[in-house]
Amino acid sequence: MRSVQKVNQGCAYTSWPYIPAVPVYRDYTMRPSGRELSQMRPVSIETNVTKHAEGSCMIKMGDTHVLCTATIEDRVPPFIKGSGLGWVTAEYGMLPRSTSSRMRREAAMGKQGGRTVEIQRLIGRALRAGVDRVALGERQITVDCDVIQADGGTRCASITGGWVALRLAVNKLMKAGDVISDPLISPVAAVSCGIYAGQAVLDLDYPEDSDAGVDGNFILRADGQLIEIQMSAEGATFSRDQMNQLLDLADKGVSELVELQLQATK
């Protein structure tokens, strides 16, 4: 991997307020994985990996592996009971050795952590954005996402694999005649993009994610409609032009993921 060369553009102390020099990156480094800037990690989706769940898959995005299962229940939360609307929700968790050191099970600590709650709410919101809840009928589908191995992008992999599990579960409802029309409006997928070593890159793995100046998660439907964008600057700010670059990368990544989703659920 070639080193990054920073070139400072001088310090103007003669004017006020003083604006620190902005480093300009030249002779850009390769990504730690050796991938091109717009290249995804290898992605695979294996379906029907569990015996009992109505829908299930194992999604692997590089070294991030997530088991996703979908469960159909003939009930809905109290706040929509009697409305005729269906509900899709999600739960998320990481196994103790999904990371480089063992973490305690949240059940052993007596409560879920804030990160877990935030991510599972995100997964639920994302999947519901692709569902016609009237067509689904008054039933609930719970998508469980269990991280077997983490190397960055676990929430994105969970959303992408979660939709596959949801699709397979809905297929069973349709085959049984329990729903009249397809309640899934569009595939939903997610990918991370960020600014690493001054470059806009697609699908960050952990070495990039932990060192990125800007990090974001992009959730889109297959028709290009945006569902949610989570962006933050961590040690560096970003311009509107860079934001547009990241959106373009996200479009590319999601289109590739949707193609894999559709192949997996034929």
Automatic annotation (TrEMBL):
Pfam families in the cross-refs: RNase_PH, RNase_PH_C
Keywords: Nucleotidyltransferase, RNA-binding, rRNA processing, Transferase, tRNA processing, tRNA-binding
Protein name per Swiss-Prot or TrEMBL: Ribonuclease PH
A GO MF term: tRNA binding
Residues the entry annotates as binding phosphate: R115, G153, T154, R155
Gene3D superfamilies, per the entry: GHMP Kinase, N-terminal domain
InterPro entries: ExoRNase_PH_dom1, ExoRNase_PH_dom2, ExoRNase_PH_dom2_sf, PNPase/RNase_PH_dom_sf, Ribosomal_Su5_D2-typ_SF, RNase_PH, RNase_PH_bac-type, RNase_PH_CS
Lineage, uppermost ranks: Bacteria, Pseudomonadati, Pseudomonadota, Alphaproteobacteria, Rhodobacterales
Name of the encoding gene: rph
